[in-house]
Prior knowledge:
By secondary structure, the chain is mainly α. It has 21 helices and no strands. α5 (100-110) runs antiparallel to α6 (127-143), α7 runs antiparallel to α8 (173-186) and α11 runs parallel beside α13 (336-362). One of its GO terms (biological process) is DNA-templated transcription. This is Fungal-specific transcription factor domain-domain-containing protein.
Amino acid sequence: MRPLDNILTTAEQVLGVKVLDPLQCPDLRPAYTTEIPDSIPSEDMEYLVGKGVFDVPNLALRNELLVTFVHNVHPYMPLLDINPFVEAIESNGKRGKVSLLLFHAVMFSSAAFIEPGNRDSDWLVSRKQSRQGFYEKAKILYNFDIETDRIVLIQAALLLTYWHEAPDDPKDARYWLEIGLSCAVSIGLNYEPDPTLPPAMQRLRRRLWWCLYTRDQLVAFTLRQAPMIRGDIQNLSLLTLNDFEFLNPIRSGIDVTNHLGFKMARSTHYQKQWSQIFIEKTKFCIIVSQVLSVDGSNISAGCDPLKTCDMRLDRWNEALPTGVQYQPPTYLEISEAERSLLAYQAWLRILFLAAKSLLCRLQRPQREGIISKRTHLPDFPDVKTQDTIQGITNITESLDSTDSIQYLPTTAVALLLPVITVHVFNIRSGKMDLWTAGFRSFHCCLKVLKRMGKIYIIAETVAHFLEFAICGDTLGHNVVEIWPRAPWLFEKVLTNNELRCLHRTLGYE
Length: 509
């Protein structure tokens, strides 16, 4: 007898009706999802039903989210074998099953990239709300130990790292990374796969480890944290194009990509370019891991480790294949495929410029925090840093002009903060040339943050704060009156000196 069976029997006797047992309900879960373990107690199942974890979007919205995942999420983290995943869903479980936890994680990661419309008003009121809804369902399923497959747990955890909207939420990106890393190490994902495994599983395991590694390094880089994955547990060779699975337009007698609208993914050319960019991203992250291991407080001018990292970054950038290099578009009307690829190339370029900017700041720590008694502004940035900052601004402006901002991942919000902070310093510098250039660049970055604010709560918060900080006086408000302190992301991203200078510039000190 399962827990609460006696209560169900008593209720039936008193009420004279059959009480629904969730475990016996054949339509409880979508047919294309794996079965719920029998070990889940009945009362837990009732709770899960009440939370709507078995509810899925209607067919049109579900398919659009799948298309969006392939176009806008999978290139950045190729952690799935797309062919069997899509076929299982498209065939309604006749050609395989998918994890319900992983399904909701995929839907969550995709919801950031589609426009709200009339597809299903109950499901897509706004991108922020739909993301939160899918995230909560995936989180609940994880908390109830619905899934035991560690590969699936790693895949879902990696996708859920894209949720870090609240500073006091303990289940932030690092929380999910820790889960993913723990599962990965427990199954030896950080070693070369067993050659007796099926080739597809060998390729998946290699990609999955590098997805975990790059995500860990980039979260650490953007939020100025120490990465969790150390070099001594990295025992895997670099990826090659042979490690990637390309979406097969015709498989098992059904043209899945045509039916679901995978027009862009039907092109092997684009898929190979996405894969090549991911390979180059792994090389970038290996260099960044060395930058993050250097303690900036103990660095003197001309420190060899930083110069070595700087030279390695330059060599990496110079060796980028043509299809990976970012080139501003020469015309504004570009296809969806071109916008997606352009955003990925641009993001890789932004990462490079952000790393160069960080190295500049680390190589001159003795100057970074000097405050001018006359202006209360920091004695930075120098010409080299200004160039990298302006380079990032120019890229975001170009992406905005081609309507490609929405393709950037959430880490772009954190990467923009040091950039826009420098523009704030330039506006308040008292120098007309810096003010003119700074205000134009500030406006450009603010517009980008506002557009990203339609997707990410933290981007919306930062945009409102900065708008009050620069324009509040004209509206009769002081930023300190409205915002007792700067949003939490500033504290995560800026150095202590930069944060102190920002506070002084805006009147917090």
